[in-house]
What we know:
The chain is mainly alpha-helical.
Amino acid sequence: SSALVDSVIKSMVSDDANDTSLVDGLTAINNARQSNIDEKIFLDMIAAHIRSLLVSKIKGENINIPVNSNNLLSLLEAYEYVGVTATPMLGLELILIKNREAKKVK
Length: 106
């Protein structure tokens, strides 16, 4: 499941113009859902990994995924949808789509 977490995070931070990373991120979310990974646990795993990357970045360590605090803040929005919608992981999917839409406007 760490590969799924990495795929989602890479999709969150990607500037991919042809939406390949968005598709990869949505596929990872779908795979997590099909593997019956609990939505909150999956969000916790993603948040913990982003936090770890941010701490490493602050320490001056070289990280392989260019995260920033906005990524973690946007992820916190997904927690609002846990157990509220009929579609598991909808909040996380919306974050990826929203990020992609914002980047296309630029």
